[in-house]
Amino acid sequence: MDTDRLKATWAEVAAHGDDVPSYFYAHLFITHPELRDLFPLVMSAQRDRLVGALGRIVSSVDDLGSVVPFVQQLGRDHRRFSVVAEHYDAVGASLLWTLAHFLGDRWTADVAADWAAAYGVVASTMVDAAEESEGVQPAWWDAEVIDKTRVSREVATFTLRPNEPVPYVAGQSMAMCIPQVPRSWRFFTPANAPRADGTIDLNVASVAGGVVSGSFVSKVRPGDTVRIGAPVGTGLVLQPDDDADLLLVAGNTGLAPFLALLDDIVEQRRRGWPLRQVHLLHGVRFPWNLYAEHRLSALAREGWFRYTPVVSDDPTYPGRRGLVGDVAAERTFDGRYHAMVCGSPAMVHHTRDALMSTPKPPETVQVEEYAAMPATEAMSEHASAQGDPL
After folding, report:
1. What 8-state DSSP symbol labels residue 289?
2. 374 vs 202: CA distance, rounded Å
């Protein structure tokens, strides 16, 4: 494969914007109409996902060590869409047809061979990973909604009871699909560490334009069944051999992974190590979205934990006001410390810049690298997401 030629031709095709995925899906569904049922009814968010996934794969094809884990995860994730090995041939044929259409005379025999070879590597890697995971875990877990509380106009909390425990660790996320919006998967993060009874707490915020998040908050009820995909993510997971202090900065329901981490930290302290200091800042637009304030304020009575709520849009709020990233940048620790940040992409970007510009920046600023996954509307629905089949 000529990787420079792959990148150059991909850049040329990607410059056509939305026309590329529109053409691809039109060809795929005309030639294989049976695949339409694998995709969501509304394709607006799906169209950009193809471009994002292919762009990452092609841009990294000359560094297989970095792209293979991503492609393997895609293969495992696609089990929840009922994708089987034969579907990859249909997708590959439509991909090459689309490339040929937009490249025109520049779709030469050599270019076609490069793209066929690159897609063959991607498809075989995904299929192998999917087949290996079949004997390890189900394609998804069914979970009953056993409790719902509407804590504000925008936010609702849920408790789910999976049919069997989901093997996640605090800070990881799972793709979920609700019956009200079938075949549309969005990532959400449990707000608790794993429990003996397997139940999972969720904090869901309704985001303007968010098809899944709005329906989740307004329409999901106790008794409904939610599908849960395999846990993913390492960016917001505690490292067991590190005792550095922690600065946790959350925007809105980006608080969820930190609530789960606090469960782990409390248990670690009970066992005697590590005895780190933790400061959590929770930023919201209005004070009624500080849905965990009582719990966190109670925990702050212990000397190792500090909690700072921050409100940006209510000038009457008597506590800290402004952008949570700016307030977090004022906080320092005496010793070494790490920062973890979770929220909207804009909030994460601003907070990271603010923290790294301080006189004593954290050793690391950890975020969940969802940019390494196909981009979806769910980036704003939770601040995390991955969507539907390629």
Report:
1. G
2. 23
Tell me the pLDDT band of 386, cut-offs 50, 70 and 90: very low
User: Per residue in 304-319, pLDDT tens?
Assistant: 999 999 999 999 999 9
The CA distance from 121 to 169, in Å, is 31
Least confident of 42-51, 212-221, 248-257, 363-372: 42-51
CA distance 164 to 173: 17
DSSP string, 232-254: E--TTSPPTT---EEEEEEEGGG
Within 276-365, residue ranges assigned H as helices are 293-299, 324-328, 345-356
Give the pLDDT band (50/70/90) at residue 390: very low
**Helix or strand (DSSP H, E) at 177:** strand 173-177
Structure tokens at 182: 């079938």
Task: Please state, in angstroms and as integers, the Cα–Cα distance from residue 380 to each residue in 126, 343, 346, 371, 389, following that order.
Answer: 27, 8, 9, 12, 19
- 21 confidence band (pLDDT: 50, 70, 90): confident
Residue 150's pLDDT is 94
Residue for token pair 């908050």: 217
Q: Is the dihedral of CA 225, 227, 233, 238 positive or negative?
A: positive
pTM for this entry: 0.75
Domains, the chain: 3-134 (1.10.490.10), 141-234+375-381 (2.40.30.10), 245-367 (3.40.50.80)
